[in-house]
Amino acid sequence: MITRKLDELGRICLPKEMRKSLDIKERQRLEIDFRNETIIIRKHEDKCTFCGSTSDISNFKEKKICKKCLEELCK
Q1: pLDDT tens-digit readout, 11-31
Q2: Which domain holds residue 62?
């Protein structure tokens, strides 16, 4: 376990070894969530607005949508 202090703006620094092993790049978007008293940080992935799929994602009227859902909408 690694401990870090929050700075005066509420920021923490993820250790270089952790960023490297998780393939987190500089300026990459991360998702921050919490459940009970646990903070969850994960790499951001574009997901379909309708089904949550992460494959074959495109933009449709400013929303993320997968190929399958787009085809269903076009029926």
Answers
A1: 999 999 999 999 999 999 999
A2: 45-75
